[in-house]
Design goal:
- There is one protein chain.
- The chain has eight helices and 13 strands.
- 32% of the residues lie in helices and 23% in strands.
- It folds into two domains: 2-67, no CATH class; 70-251, Vaccinia Virus protein VP39 (Rossmann fold, 3-Layer(aba) Sandwich).
- Helix 4 links the parallel strand 5 (89-94) and strand 6 (110-116).
- It is an alpha/beta fold and 254 residues long.
- The longest helix is centred in the N-terminal third of the chain and has 18 residues, at 14-31.
Length: 254
């Protein structure tokens, strides 16, 4: 199972993967019913979650809603630490995750807009380097596991800062590696070389421990939030959460 999932993730184009995944997961969901783990996003219970990743991680993917560890953590953060589920908010969700779309669209308090340059799940076709909305439009922005793909991550974040309202906030997650400084080289264009150097064929950089400081160059304020450290070990195990995941919370800069 792990080798099959790793192969599919590496070589099936992402838009196609986003389209076919829910169908494949329906079967796996029925085969994996149990009570050891629980997905806080959809409420499903399983013996364990499915493996997932290019180097497959055990107990990672909810076969019901396709939430990964980071999605389950983000859901809990929004529930426990924000007014996301109750306040009237205008939300921009870049490269929307399957596990969130229908649930966020169903919230009556949200004016919820999904956008991406290629995802079939998004309703607005948009390049993050040039966001087609006026300044001070959104209360909240989500952009997770996107900035490692784009040509200019600082320009994209400058656009987020522009379209956020005063007091607006967002979550900007990305893989962050144990490097002192972000590694990037725009002369590396061969997919195999990009996978070897940046971790994935469609990545153009490998973010290091300077991730937050780097994004601050855009004008955004960036908080490195350790929300997972506030949760009990029982909850972390029950929801199969990433124990060392930092939440990068952005706020509109002055």
């Amino acid at each position: 199972m792990k080798s099959i999932i790793s192969f599919v993730i590496r070589y099936v184009p992402r838009p196609l993967l986003q389209t076919i995944s829910p169908l494949a997961m329906t079967i796996l969901s029925r085969l994996n019913k149990g009570s050891n783990v629980e997905c806080p996003v959809c409420g499903s219970h399983y013996k364990k979650f499915l493996p997932y990743g290019r180097i497959a991680r055990e107990n990672a993917l909810c076969p019901s809603c396709l939430a990964l560890e980071r999605h389950r953590l983000m859901w809990l953060f929004l529930k426990k630490e924000t007014n996301f589920f109750s306040a009237p908010l205008k939300v921009l969700h870049v490269a929307p995750e399957h596990c969130f779309i229908n649930r966020f669209e169903a919230l009556p308090n949200l004016d919820y807009i999904t956008a991406d340059i290629e995802s079939p799940l998004a309703k607005v076709k948009m390049d993050v380097h040039s966001i087609p909305f006026p300044e001070n439009t959104f209360d909240v922005i989500f952009c997770n596991h996107v900035l490692e793909h784009v040509d200019d991550d600082i320009l994209a974040c400058s656009e987020f800062n522009r379209v956020l309202k005063p007091g607006g906030w967002g979550i900007l997650q990305s893989p962050v590696y144990a490097l002192d400084n972000t590694l990037e080289d725009n002369t590396i264009t061969d997919p195999a070389d990009r996978e070897r150097i940046f971790g994935q064929r469609d990545h153009v950089r490998k973010f290091g421990k300077d991730y937050a400081e780097r994004l601050r160059k855009s004008g955004l304020q960036i908080e490195e939030n350790q929300f997972v450290k506030t949760l009990s070990s029982e909850l972390i195990k029950r929801y199969a959460l990433p124990q060392d995941e930092v939440l990068f919370i952005c706020r509109k800069g002055i």
